[in-house]
Amino acid sequence: MNTLPSAPCPEWRLDHTTPKRRFAEPVFARGTLIHALFNHPGLRKALLQSRAVLCILAMAAVIRWLYPPWLWPGATVAISGELLQMWCFACLRKDRMLCTNGPYAFCRNPMYIGRFFMMLGIVLLLGNPWVVGLFVVAYTYYVVNRVEREEAKLRECLGEPYEEYCRQVNRFLPSLRPLATSSVWFFDAARFKKNCALSNGLLVVAFFVAAWWLTGTSYNVYSIA
């Protein structure tokens, strides 16, 4: 069980008496134009609103220029990352509770690690090292700046319990020893369902099934021609 105490987050209260706080500026948001770009409110809002369309276009482009020898290696990497992300969904409570169980006992942001490998597996299908390198750089900037913003809010919301968690658990690099006060073999079916983990996993599997089928179909057409 999670024995670290939890603290209410006044920012999440809905009554008009909630005090408004100004979150500390993320460290990585200072000093460079590219970090400022990744923290631009207007750009982030536009990307959030159009993420479904962008995702569909990106997946269509990957299938269009897919390099068949990388289909199964890419699928292995992507599905492994998605399984980690699904485990995170089964542990994460999107409320005032500090999550330290399951993969969160090894590092503070395992979901972003799982998401990285899920997306990396899809990018690998292109078989282009330059595109892979560009993705790694872009994702690094994205996740570092996003985590900086999120952790600034969590420090405001959860206070000392979260500070103690940060002192004991790395941000990204998983520790060989889990947090002693956490339950590593943790899986909550209700959280798994509430966070739509199954539908996310099925979408990833469906993408690779479609890629496999379309690749085979295109080869048959070429061979007949």
Question: Could you explain how this protein is built, in words?
Answer:
The protein is an all-alpha fold. It has helices at residues 33-38, 41-49, 51-64, 71-89, 110-124, 129-158, 160-168, 189-194, 197-224. The protein has one domain (28-224). α4 runs antiparallel to α5, α4 (71-89) runs antiparallel to α9 (197-224) and α5 (110-124) runs antiparallel to α6 (129-158). The longest helix has 30 residues, at 129-158.
Summary keywords:
225 residues; mainly alpha; 60% helix; disordered N terminus
Tell me, briefly, the overall form.
globular
H/E topology pattern: HHHHHHHHH
Give the domain tally. Answer: 1
Largest sheet data: none
Question: What value does the Rg take, in angstroms?
Answer: 20 Å
The unreliable regions are 1-29, 219-225
Category from helices, strands and their pairing: mainly alpha
Mean pLDDT: 81
| Structure summary, number of beta strands | 0
Provide the β-strand percentage band: under 5%
Helix content: 55-70%
Distance between the termini: 62 Å
